[in-house]
């Protein structure tokens, strides 16, 4: 057996082992166990969101499931997750995003609060933060329509319409535009919570499921 073939086999074994160990922990925690405690968040922001007209309508919609972002990510992986780890905390992402999933209409709504430490040199929220939020939740909206319920971003196009002020609560709206086989197209935007909402950014995401995902269908990460 040549050296190149041995290296290829060894690399494949390492990847498979690492992937399996990572995946093994994914379903081990219940939703209740994964959720961040309320006291780790800004209570006044949560109360403000709960008074929002759109929030109340979503709560009363029987086609909608409400959850928090952290509930879908085991604690063992939260610190290595961008928005649940690096960007989460006081003066950053100050609440555990509240998510409404409407599978009937293939829509998603997510409430965020952007703290002062996420501002760029010009005093406005860094566009990279907005990009991360849009990437995460447009994909989250599209996952249920892939064969394995998991995929990767193939393309993300964003049109930044307004710079976002720091210490702002925003609403992300996403909707599946088209899905077929291993590909889903999702559109969405971020807006303010004003009585007349102002769009801050619009995006379009192409989500795909790599062919090799089918070889890991037996792993619980794909359940």
Automatic annotation (TrEMBL):
<dbReference type="InterPro" id="IPR052061">
    <property type="entry name" value="PTE-AB_protein"/>
</dbReference>
<dbReference type="InterPro" id="IPR029069">
    <property type="entry name" value="HotDog_dom_sf"/>
</dbReference>
<dbReference type="Pfam" id="PF03061">
    <property type="entry name" value="4HBT"/>
</dbReference>
<protein>
    <recommendedName>
        <fullName>Thioesterase domain-containing protein</fullName>
    </recommendedName>
</protein>
<feature type="signal peptide">
    <location>
        <begin position="1"/>
        <end position="30"/>
    </location>
</feature>
<dbReference type="InterPro" id="IPR006683">
    <property type="entry name" value="Thioestr_dom"/>
</dbReference>
<keyword id="KW-0732">Signal</keyword>
<feature type="domain" description="Thioesterase">
    <location>
        <begin position="123"/>
        <end position="191"/>
    </location>
</feature>
């Amino acid at each position: 057996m040549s050296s190149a073939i041995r290296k290829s086999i060894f690399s494949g074994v390492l990847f498979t082992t690492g992937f399996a160990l990572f995946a093994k922990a994914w379903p081990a925690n219940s939703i209740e166990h994964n959720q961040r405690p309320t006291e780790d968040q800004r209570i006044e922001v949560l109360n403000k969101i709960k008074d929002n007209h759109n929030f109340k309508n979503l709560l009363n919609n029987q086609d909608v499931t409400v959850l928090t972002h952290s509930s879908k990510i085991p604690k063992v992986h939260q610190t290595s997750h961008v928005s649940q780890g690096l960007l989460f905390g006081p003066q950053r992402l100050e609440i555990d995003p509240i998510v409404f999933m409407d599978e009937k209409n293939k829509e998603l709504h997510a409430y965020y609060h952007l703290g002062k430490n996420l501002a760029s040199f010009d005093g406005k929220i860094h566009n990279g933060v907005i990009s991360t939020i849009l990437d995460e939740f447009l994909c989250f909206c599209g996952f249920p329509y892939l064969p394995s319920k998991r995929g990767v971003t193939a393309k993300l196009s964003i049109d930044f319409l307004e710079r976002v002020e720091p210490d702002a609560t925003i609403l992300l709206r996403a909707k599946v535009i088209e899905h077929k086989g291993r590909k889903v197209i999702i559109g969405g935007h971020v807006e303010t919570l004003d009585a007349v909402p102002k769009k801050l950014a619009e995006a379009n995401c192409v989500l795909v499921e790599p062919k090799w995902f089918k070889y890991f269908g037996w792993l619980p990460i794909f359940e």
